[in-house]
């Protein structure tokens, strides 16, 4: 009886390790690097302010977008929410 219980716990543990390893590998494969500077890019979701249903997911480099000079008088047309990474 005890051997059956130990083997069931071992099988369950192996199954959980496989699930976590698979999700970690999938996460590592979705990381992209910026072609300009080589830093890790982050995922950003843009939502239109006029229509909340229009959403667009984009990967962009935070360093390269911070370098660009923005116009001060620009009116934002969409909301930017960051997803990680």
Distance between the termini: 47 Å
Strand content: 15-25%
Topology as a string of helices (H) and strands (E): HEEHE
Total helix count?
Answer: 2
Rg from Cα: 22 Å
Biggest beta sheet attributes: 3 strands, antiparallel
- Multimerization status: single chain
Strand order of the largest sheet: 2-1-3
Low-confidence stretches: none
Proportion of helical residues: 40-55%
- The overall average pLDDT, rounded, is 83
Structural class from helices and strands?
alpha+beta
Notes on the protein architecture:
The radius of gyration is 22 Å and the shape is elongated. The chain is α+β, with helices and mostly antiparallel strands and 85 residues long. It has helices spanning 2-29, 62-67, and strands spanning 42-48, 55-60, 78-83. The N and C termini lie far apart (47 Å). A hairpin with a 6-residue loop joins β1 and β2.
Fold topology:
Blueprint: H1 2-29, E1 42-48, E2 55-60, H2 62-67, E3 78-83
Antiparallel strand pairs: 1-2, 1-3
Key phrases:
single chain, alpha+beta, 3 strands, 40% helix, elongated
Please give a quick description of this structure.
The protein has 85 residues and is α+β, with helices and mostly antiparallel strands.
